Predict the structure.
Amino acid sequence: MMEAKQWTVQIYITEDGDDTRARAVLSTNETSTVIGKGVARRNPIDRPVPEIGDELAASRALEDLAIRLHDVAADDIIELAGPVRT
C-alpha cells in the first residue's frame, strides 16, 4: 500500500530598508527541521517594488533549503545505507 506523507515549508520574509531577508523552514515528521536563508538587496537606482525583493529572497532561501536538504540526505546515505553490519 502506498504511504502518503506531507512536508511543510513555511517562508518568513522581513524587510529593512533596501534589504529583504527570507527564511524557508521545512518541517517533516521524520527529520529535524531544515532551514534555508536568502537575501535580496534593491539597487538604490531601481524603483522600489517590494514584491521583487520578496520573490528573490524567497527563491534564494528555497534554493539554500534544497542544498541543505540534499546534504542531510547525503549524510544519511553515508551513515545508514549499504550492507547491514553484524
